[in-house]
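Below is one protein, fold included:
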Amino acid sequence: MSSILISLAHFCDKHGPQVILVTQTSDKGTLGDELLLPDYPIDSYCESCLLHFPDNETTIRSMRSILHERPYITTQYSAVRYQLLNAIIRRSFSEETMVYDSLPNVFHDNVSGVNLVMGFKLYDENARGNERRYCLILTIDDKDEMSSTKILSNNWNFITGGFLKMINYIKDSHAKELERKTTSDTDKNGFTPFMGNYLRGNKSKIARNLIELTNDKNIFIKIHKWNTYLLDALLPRYNEADV
C-alpha cells in the first residue's frame, strides 16, 4: 500500500538512530485500527527515546485524529512498516550530507521510496557532545519514483515550510527553557551554571526527551496535530499526481 508518512527520529547516545514517533493514515471512512499499537514492554527504551502522551495511561502509545473522515494515527513505531522505517532512520543519520541546521536533504531508492529529511540539534549538557540530534522525515512510500518526485517538487515549499515551523517551535521552546533554567540556577547559586558544567567535564550523561528539553508536556500532541495537518493537505495532491 503506497502512502505518505511523517516521522520524528533522533540519534540516541545509548541506542543509536531511533524513531520517536511516526504519523500514518489509513483509508477514508475507516478508523485505522490496524495502525494502533498493542501494549508492549518499554524496558528497552531509554527516556530520550520514549514517546509520551500526557493524561494517557502509561500503556497507551497511540494517538488518533479523524480529519475529513480519514484517520491519522501517531505511534512510537509503525506496526506495518517497522523494517522500512528503521532502514530510513539509519540511512538518514549516516548520510554524509546530513546536517543539523534545518536544511532539507532528499534521498531515494527502490526499497525506502522518496524521503525528505530536515535535521536539527538542541543543546544539552547531559548529552554526548553537549547536543541532541533530531530529524523530521517525510516518506513517500511508493515504488513509482516519478510520481513521488512530482508530489515532492510540486509541494516543496509547503512541506519544508511546515517542517521548519515545527522545528523552530521546538528550538524556540528549548531556548526559553535554557534561559529559564540558567536564570533560576544563577539566582540560587550566584554563578552561571554552564561554567560549572564545563569544569566538571560532562562526566554524567542523563537521557532526556523533548518534553523535558522544551518544558512542554504537550509537545508530542502538537507534533501529532501538525503532522496530521500536513498529511491531510498532501494526500489529495498525492492522489492527483497518480492520475
Q: What stands out?
A: The radius of gyration is 19 Å.
